[in-house]
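2.7 Reproducibility. Because tokenized structures are sensitive to small changes in the input, we list the exact sequence used for Glutaredoxin, including any N-terminal residues retained from the expression construct. No trimming or masking was applied before prediction.
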Amino acid sequence: MSNEQSSIEQTIRDQISANNILLYMKGSPDQPQCGFSAQAVQCLMGCGQRFAYVDILANPEIRSTLPIVANWPTFPQLWIDGELVGGCDIITDLHNKGELKTMIDASAAAAPADQA
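Resulting structure tokens (single pass, no recycling of outputs):
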């Protein structure tokens, strides 16, 4: 592994640990750049809590390294409390069952005050 790749991996780990609810996506919540990212954002927004995001299109080194770190090949990727939840299908399924809001609310309630 190159120093550059290990540095990118550390950046990813730092992003995941610094944000209790984090979506790696194509584009931004205001302007998703693919249908799967748009659908994931709609599910998250429906939960009513703030979340962080990383635009992988603007960060090609994260886009190429995150699937290795996560052992998950596709985007978007939702991380809650440092754990990979999954991609669009899983996010949508959890949202439809009402489980995503429960997970998001619990994470937001446990977040340090400076993240609120």
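The chain has a mean pLDDT of 93.
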